[in-house]
Amino acid sequence: PSLPALTLSARVTYSEDGYSKISSPLQGPVLDVRVKLGQAVKAGEVLMVIDAADIARAYAAYVEEISELGLAERNYELIKDLYDAQAMSLKDLEHAENDLNRERAEFKQAKERLLSLRVPAAELSKPLAQQQITSRFELRSPLTGTVVERNVTPGQIVGTASDQPLFTVANLDRLQVVADVYEHDLSGIRVGALAAMTVEAYPAIEFPAKIAVIGDVVDPATRTIKIRATVSNQDRRLKPEMFARLTIAGHTMRPKIVIPKQALVERSGRQWIVVELAPGRYEERAVTIDSVTENQVTIREGVTTGECIVLSPSSMNHLAAGDTSAGGA
After folding, report:
1. Torsion over CA of 230, 236, 240 and 246, rounded to 10 degrees?
2. What is residue 110's three-state secondary structure?
3. If pLDDT is split at 50, 70 and 90, which confidence band does 199 have?
4. What is the mean predicted confidence (pLDDT) over 185-213?
5. What does 13-46 look like in DSSP terms, one character per residue?
6. Is the distance from CB of 250 to CB of 3 less than 8 angstroms?
7. For residue 315, what are the contacts with CB-CB under 8 A and spacing of at least 6?
8. How far apart are CA 195 and CA 214, in angstroms?
9. Backbone angles phi, psi at 171, to 5 degrees
């Protein structure tokens, strides 16, 4: 049997993996803002350009380390040749080797600092004379979508300390609708179930939605669980933060079976019943319990309506299992 349709108050939001709040990983004045509010952008597109002094300083240190490392390598080779010719002591060779290892470590650190400042590794792989690295840092969009928030202007000093994102980019083609479900209604909802959504702006239109996520946490104050459904928004009629109503049609979950408590046997941490398959033929079967009262047990899985169960191991009286809608067994 199907339960009655369930209608929930809901709210339209961005899809969890379909929007991004973007801040600057570097500090400096904004040279250029490339996008406007409401503009469509592609993943990798430049949103703004920053003059990041940290890059200039780190690159200067990196170039200096290249020079120092080259000097240490040449010095080591020279002393090693002299040592092989017995013109230098082992102590001098070990000292030159220590200097070389230290310069290698400092060079690696300088390169990793540049990479942490988002300088492309491919640029650092080029010969030094061909590298084109400046203090200009291009902040790019991580996803394809629409600029739905912009909090930056040219000349503004940005940095990592600000809590406010400079841009929010969202995919508006697919949104989510979030609703709170009471515990007693949760059993009628399944991931993948279809639902219909309406909003006040278009009361006569039903937007098809699909249950995507059922929360794992109960809100202790409201005793509700959050559910999320996806909804297509190709025509852009839906707007995030709209109030909505989500109607979940009667589901086709398996009926709950109620049996007398005495028919249940617990063994090895699991619950079992005995089902009579045919006169004189019995089968022991593990079941999943939904709830237990003083005299009755509600079975979620393991037995279906109409099957005969043994009331107790000592007697072979049996009972046709019944679902809750029929009054139970």
Report:
1. -40
2. helix
3. very high
4. 89
5. EE-TTSEEEE--SS-EEEEEE---TT-EE-TT-E
6. yes
7. none
8. 14
9. -85, 110
* CA pair distance 111, 120, nearest whole angstrom: 11
Residue at token pair 């019944």: 322
User: Which residue type is seen at 39?
Assistant: Q
Show the tokens assigned to 213. 């996520």
Residue length, the chain?
Answer: 329
Give the count of beta carbons closer than 10 Å to the beta carbon of residue 30: 19
CB 76 within 8 A of CB 96: yes
> For the stretch 126-143, what's the b/e string if a residue is b when 16 or more beta carbons lie within 10 angstroms of its beta carbon?
eeeeeeebebebebbbeb
Report the alpha-carbon distance of residue 195 to residue 211 in Å, rounded.
Answer: 7
Q: What is the pLDDT of residues 229-257, one digit of tens each?
A: 999 999 999 999 999 999 887 654 445 67
What is the rounded distance in angstroms from the CA atom of residue 211 to the CA atom of residue 177? 9
d(CA 32, CA 51): 9
For range 185-200, the mean pLDDT: 86
β partners of residue 48: 33, 139
How far, in Å, CA of 168 to CA of 166, rounded?
7
pLDDT tens figures, 1-54: 445 678 888 999 999 888 999 998 888 999 999 999 999 999 999 999 999 888
Could you tell me which of 162, 322, 179, 175 has the C-alpha nearest to residue 258? 322
Are 259 and 326 contacting, i.e. CB atoms less than 8 angstroms apart? no
Position 237: which residue type?
R
Q: Which amino acid is at 10?
A: A
Q: State both tokens at 54.
A: 């940290």
